[in-house]
């Protein structure tokens, strides 16, 4: 966690070292002295202890209320508080009577997935209070409520990426909004580079799992104070992509007769916006990555944290070059969007059939109750 410093003093560290929010057992308040050691390291002592403290360190008075304020600022700016997210959810709930069960995120060039939705009510991101705006070509920037295969759904035509300048928590904040709107399932889609040599441009990869490389570097959408109203501090990720929905997708793909163009694999998200070097792609392949993009992973982590059931697929929009003499063209976003558009009908059909099948399951389950 960064951003909690005054004059180089780590406020969070000071707070943690100095006891409860209401003062210590001896009735001392939690205002305390933080010491900035000459070597740049920081240590803290309580106000009372410090009277006897006679070393060379520079002393800085740290106010408990100020710490709380700073924490709130960071939570609101980067993580969005539960209350703020609820306000955004209420904005929709007050304006539409549709109560979606499934949330869909349309990837680059895949806006048309939402064309299958009927009885739509659309909200431009720019009109939604406290909502970010899409800045990437191929992402319309609209939230669409309606019905798909008879199921109430909500679709995001446009997502937020880290490279746009949004922190990860803000990129995936809409997932929490959709949770509070009432969805139970998240269907995420993306455009991705095919790293598995068997993948062709235009193929689909059902996401079986992901590798959270940004998480390896300590960057997570769940970073910061945890609000248990969303989920636990340490959520498991072993069933991140629901195994029943993966099985269902296999069946649907067979029914569609497209099994030769569809794979199951591992996705990873890099920060972007640059595409990868050959050396990076070689490393990712060794790690077991099949498709690479710049989204989805943080959305799925956020979705699993708040107990949504997740299904995701990648449209392979380009082949990644893993040697310097490769004849593959350099990746470029125009091509990514173009391939998305050229494969919109197959991606749309997969989505519709999955939702039709899932709707039948849900009906059956409800019938049995
Ligand atoms: O993941 P989506 O949003 O589909 O878009 C993918 O396509 C863009 C790069 O061409 C990046 O934003 C990458 O993440």
Automatic annotation (TrEMBL):
List the catalysed reactions: 2'-deoxyinosine + phosphate = 2-deoxy-alpha-D-ribose 1-phosphate + hypoxanthine; inosine + phosphate = alpha-D-ribose 1-phosphate + hypoxanthine; guanosine + phosphate = alpha-D-ribose 1-phosphate + guanine; 2'-deoxyguanosine + phosphate = 2-deoxy-alpha-D-ribose 1-phosphate + guanine
Please provide, in alphabetical order, the Gene Ontology terms of the cellular component aspect for this entry.
cytoplasm
Segments carrying the region annotation (Disordered) are 36-55
Q: Which residues form the Nucleoside phosphorylase domain?
A: 102-344
Write down the Gene3D superfamilies for this protein, in alphabetical order: Nucleoside phosphorylase domain (3.40.50.1580)
Q: Which GO terms describe its molecular function?
A: purine-nucleoside phosphorylase activity
Q: Which UniProt keywords apply?
A: Glycosyltransferase, Transferase
Q: In which pathway does it act?
A: Purine metabolism; purine nucleoside salvage
Skewed-composition ranges (Low complexity)? 41-55
Annotated GO biological processes are: nucleoside metabolic process
Q: What is its EC number?
A: 2.4.2.1
Write out the similarity annotation.
Belongs to the PNP/MTAP phosphorylase family.
Q: What is this protein called?
A: Purine nucleoside phosphorylase
Q: Which organism is it from?
A: Ceratitis capitata
């Amino acid at each position: 966690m960064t951003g909690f410093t005054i004059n180089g003093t780590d406020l969070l560290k000071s707070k943690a070292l100095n006891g409860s929010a209401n003062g210590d057992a001896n009735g001392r308040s939690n205002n305390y002295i933080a010491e900035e050691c000459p070597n740049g390291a920081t240590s803290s002592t309580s106000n009372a202890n410090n009277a006897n403290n006679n070393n060379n360190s520079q002393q800085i008075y740290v106010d408990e209320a100020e710490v709380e304020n700073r924490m709130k600022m960071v939570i609101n700016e980067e993580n969005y508080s539960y209350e703020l997210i609820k306000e955004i959810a209420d904005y929709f709930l007050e304006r539409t009577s549709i109560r979606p069960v499934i949330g869909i995120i349309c990837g680059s060039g895949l806006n048309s997935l939402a064309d299958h939705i009927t009885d739509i009510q659309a909200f431009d991101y720019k009109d939604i209070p406290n909502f970010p705006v899409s800045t990437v070509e191929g992402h319309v920037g609209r939230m669409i409520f309606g019905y798909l295969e008879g199921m109430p759904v909500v679709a995001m035509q446009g997502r937020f990426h880290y490279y746009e300048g949004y922190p990860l928590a803000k990129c995936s904040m809409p997932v929490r909004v959709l949770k509070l709107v009432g969805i139970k399932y998240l269907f995420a889609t993306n455009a991705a580079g095919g790293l598995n040599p068997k993948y062709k441009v235009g193929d689909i990869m059902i996401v079986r799992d992901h590798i959270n490389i940004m998480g390896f570097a300590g960057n997570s959408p769940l970073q910061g104070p945890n609000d248990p109203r969303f989920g636990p501090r340490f959520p498991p990720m072993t069933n991140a992509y629901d195994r029943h929905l993966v099985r269902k997708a296999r069946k649907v793909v067979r029914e569609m007769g497209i099994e030769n163009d569809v794979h199951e694999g591992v996705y990873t998200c890099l920060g972007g916006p640059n595409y990868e070097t050959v050396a990076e792609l070689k490393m990712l392949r060794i790690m077991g990555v099949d498709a690479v993009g710049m989204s989805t992973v943080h959305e799925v982590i956020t979705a699993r944290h708040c107990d949504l059931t997740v299904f995701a697929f990648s449209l392979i929009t380009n082949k990644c070059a893993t040697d310097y003499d490769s004849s593959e063209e350099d990746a470029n976003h125009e091509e990514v969007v173009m391939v998305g558009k050229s494969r919109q009908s197959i991606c749309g059909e997969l989505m519709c059939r999955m939702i039709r099948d899932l709707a039948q399951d849900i009906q059956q389950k409800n019938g049995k109750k």
